[in-house]
Specification:
globular, 62% helix, 19 helices, mainly alpha
Length: 401
């Protein structure tokens, strides 16, 4: 009976994982991507029981969920934001449910399918670029969903070292690189799965053929993980304040020297928000942010950042990472976020991992690498540090979800 239950969980989780790491397989309805992986866990009757049990018996976690959702709704008056936050929490709980029962080996296999497709895209691109685009994410999504495909930028063109970038079934190479980085971190700290050389070979190949600006962040993420014990000695508020002021100062300086120009639009989109949130926001914006997450073009802060209008016209209508949280919800929203992370026992290392991993998206987005990052920063509370031999040592804490 136990074997049947585990097999059942495995089948459901593998379907979930394929959809989870392949966002272009989900449709676009009324301008919103409806991720199919949201619905898959409900077919696991054991997870339904598990989830109901957590709702009935949860204390701290339920309190965090309640505060998070209610405050976000009050600040934004937006049911979509409420749904996105609920889906984030719900998916993290499902990932932990699966991790406790069968581990993540099927998640790695599902991601490997994306890597195999990316390798095929890369090889064909070197031979016939036009043919490679026919197996790119946009072409595949369009073939499945027609006009309802959820988007995707088949940007196979080279960015670094004249190597074409490929992305499997991710929206584009940067998203694939971000997902790859988080999966590598999880694979490192995951002691329930046997680590094999062939998996590392696939990771290395995928890293090279998807090399993007987000790929540069992987060494920083590994640095944080390696020195986790030392970093976590820094109080979470002090560590966050230091990073916030440092990046804000860098952003202001880069804007003054004219670095935030159309030729650097990708980097500008990720960094310019740190300077804006320190620059001429109104008292209301400082406290509760803007309900639509945007700033008017005649805003004093925007007048000093002309790149904003350019990016807005280019379709980059949101900020990224922590600045997005401030622009949308103000410092009150940031305090609630930090408090929620504290309740979940997240340390300074976790906030740094979130900082690097979500540098090109919103902290409330439901895309796979963001969800996995939240799971990771909670899970690594067990990990004290990576010693010189590369193994992990754990604190024996109670289950966190």
């Amino acid at each position: 009976m136990k074997r049947f239950r585990n097999n059942y969980i495995s089948v459901i989780f593998f379907i979930f994982s394929v959809l989870f790491v392949s966002p272009v397989l989900s449709p676009l309805i009324n301008g919103r991507t409806i991720y199919l992986y949201w619905f898959v866990p409900f077919f696991d009757y054991q997870f339904d029981t598990y989830l109901i049990g957590k709702i009935n018996h949860g204390k701290k976690t339920a309190f965090v969920i309640f505060v998070f959702i209610i405050l976000f709704v009050l600040l934004r008056r937006n049911l979509m934001i409420m749904f996105k936050v609920i889906s984030l929490i719900y998916t993290v709980i499902y990932l932990q449910y699966v991790f406790q029962r069968i581990g993540f080996s099927l998640l790695y296999k599902a991601f490997n399918l994306n890597i195999y497709l990316a390798i095929l895209q890369f090889i064909i691109y070197l031979w016939n670029p036009q043919l490679a685009y026919q197996i790119g994410p946009k072409a595949i999504a369009s073939a499945i969903w027609g006009q309802q495909y959820s988007g995707g930028n088949t940007n196979f063109y080279p960015v670094f070292f004249n190597i074409p970038r490929v992305c499997g079934l991710s929206r584009e190479a940067g998203f694939f690189a971000a997902l790859l980085s988080v999966v590598i971190l999880i694979y490192i700290v995951d002691k329930t799965t046997q680590h094999v050389k062939s998996q590392w070979v696939l990771f290395i190949i995928a890293y090279v053929i998807s090399f993007s600006k987000m790929s540069i962040l992987l060494p920083f993420l590994l640095f944080v993980l390696y020195f986790k014990k030392t970093i976590d000695r820094i109080p979470i508020g002090l560590g966050f304040g230091f990073v916030w002021l440092t990046l804000g100062s860098v952003s202001i300086y880069l804007n003054k020297i004219g670095f935030f120009s159309p030729s650097n639009e990708s980097i500008a989109h990720r960094f310019y928000g740190y300077g804006i949130v320190l620059n001429n926001l109104s008292l209301k914006e400082i406290i509760i942010g803007n309900s639509n997450g945007l700033l008017q073009l005649n805003h004093k802060a925007i007048l000093e950042y002309p790149i904003y209008e350019y990016l807005l016209n280019r379709g980059f209508d949101t900020f990224c990472g922590y600045p997005d949280l401030i622009i949308c919800f103000g410092y009150l929203g940031m305090i609630v976020f930090l408090f929620s992370m504290h309740i979940m026992h997240t340390k300074t290392s976790g906030l740094l991992i979130l900082l690097f991993a979500t540098m090109d998206v919103s902290l409330t987005t439901s895309t796979s690498f963001v969800v996995l990052t939240y799971w990771l920063v909670i899970h690594i509370n067990k990990v004290v540090y990576l010693n010189s031999s590369g193994t992990s040592r754990y604190n024996h804490r109670k289950k966190y979800i």
